[in-house]
C-alpha cells in the first residue's frame, strides 16, 4: 500500500517485504530504484518540484525514520515499522551472500567505502564487492560509470547524501538491477560513525542520540516540528472533506 505524505507516496512495506521485493528484482533481472525517505527529504520536496518528481518516480519509497512512520499512521494507514537505509542494507547481506550477489558501494569520504567493504566481506565472503568514494568530479564521473558498468552489480548502493544520491540514481538508470540511496550507511558499516545502542533504536529516539553526538545537525533536525505540523494540517484537511 502507498500513502501520500505531503505529496510524496510512501510504501508501507515491512523490512521483510522490502527485502523480498529486492530479491525478486535481482532474480528476475528487473531494474528497480529505491528511496529511503526521511522527514527532511519529504519536507524539502515541498519546495523543490524536481525532488518531489524524483522521489515519486521511484519504484519503492520506504519510511526511513519514526517521523515518517508516525505521519503514515496519522493519515490513517497501517505501517508496522520503519525501513531505514542502514537497516535495509544490513538485512540484504545474508541473502546477497547466499545468492552470491555483486554489490557496488559508491559514496562516502575517501577510504570509507573501502573500509566498509573490508568489514562486510569478512562476514559475507560470498558477496563480490566493488567500491568508489563519493568525492568525484564531473570529469571523473564517466570513469566511475564505466567502472560500475564493467563490474555489472546486482545491487548499487549510493551514499552521496540526500538529495544528491536520489538525483544521481534517477539520472543514471540501468547500472544495476537494484539501486538504493543509503545516505551515511557506509560510515556505519566502516565503523567510523557509531549507531545508537539497540535500546535507544527500539525507543525510536535514535535521532536524539545523533543530535547529542553531532550537535551541528540541529539545523537539519529543526525541520522535524515543521514536518509534523504540515502532516497534522494534511490530516485536518482530509477529515474536513
Order of helices and strands: EEHEHHEHHEHEHEHEHHHHH
Helical residue percent band: 40-55%
Shape by Cα distribution = globular
Structural domain count: 1
Query: Main beta sheet: strand number and arrangement?
Result: 6 strands, parallel
β-strand percent reads 15-25%
**Beta-strand segment tally:** 8
Backbone CA Rg? 18 Å
Low-confidence stretches: none
The N- to C-terminal Cα distance equals 22 Å
Mean pLDDT level: 93
The neighbouring-strand order within the major sheet is 4-3-8-7-5-6
Oligomer: single chain
Number of helices: 13
Organism: Desulfosporosinus acididurans
Protein name: N-acetylglucosaminyldiphosphoundecaprenol N-acetyl-beta-D-mannosaminyltransferase
InterPro entries: TagA_TarA (IPR034714), WecG_TagA_CpsF (IPR004629)
Function: Catalyzes the conversion of GlcNAc-PP-undecaprenol into ManNAc-GlcNAc-PP-undecaprenol, the first committed lipid intermediate in the de novo synthesis of teichoic acid.
Amino acid at each position: 500500500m502507498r500513502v501520500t505524505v505531503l505529496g510524496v507516496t510512501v510504501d508501507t512495506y515491512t523490512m521483510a517485504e522490502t527485502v523480498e521485493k529486492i530479491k525478486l528484482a535481482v532474480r528476475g533481472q528487473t531494474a528497480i530504484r529505491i528511496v529511503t525517505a526521511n522527514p527532511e527529504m519529504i519536507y524539502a520536496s515541498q519546495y523543490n518540484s524536481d525532488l518531489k518528481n524524483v522521489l515519486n518516480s521511484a519504484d519503492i519509497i520506504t519510511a526511513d525514520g519514526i517521523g515518517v512512520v508516525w505521519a503514515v499512521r496519522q493519515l490513517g494507514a497501517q505501517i508496522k515499522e520503519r525501513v531505514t537505509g542502514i537497516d535495509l542494507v544490513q538485512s540484504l547481506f545474508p541473502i546477497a551472500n547466499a545468492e552470491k550477489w555483486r554489490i557496488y558501494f559508491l559514496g562516502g569520504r575517501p577510504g570509507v567505502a573501502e573500509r566498509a567493504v573490508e568489514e562486510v566481506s569478512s562476514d559475507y565472503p560470498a558477496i563480490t564487492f566493488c567500491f568508489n568514494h563519493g568525492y568525484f568530479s564531473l570529469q571523473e564521473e564517466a570513469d566511475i560509470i564505466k567502472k560500475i558498468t564493467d563490474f555489472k552489480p546486482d545491487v548499487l548502493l549510493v551514499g552521496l547524501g540526500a538529495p544528491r544520491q536520489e538525483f544521481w540514481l534517477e539520472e543514471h538508470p540501468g547500472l544495476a538491477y537494484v539501486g538504493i540511496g543509503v545516505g551515511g550507511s557506509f560510515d556505519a558499516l566502516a565503523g567510523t560513525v557509531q549507531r545508537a545502542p539497540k535500546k535507544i533504536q527500539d525507543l525510536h529516539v535514535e535521532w536524539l542520540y545523533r543530535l547529542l553526538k553531532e550537535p551541528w545537525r540541529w539545523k537539519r533536525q529543526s525541520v522535524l516540528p515543521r514536518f509534523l505540523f504540515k502532516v497534522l494540517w494534511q490530516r485536518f484537511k482530509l477529515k474536513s472533506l
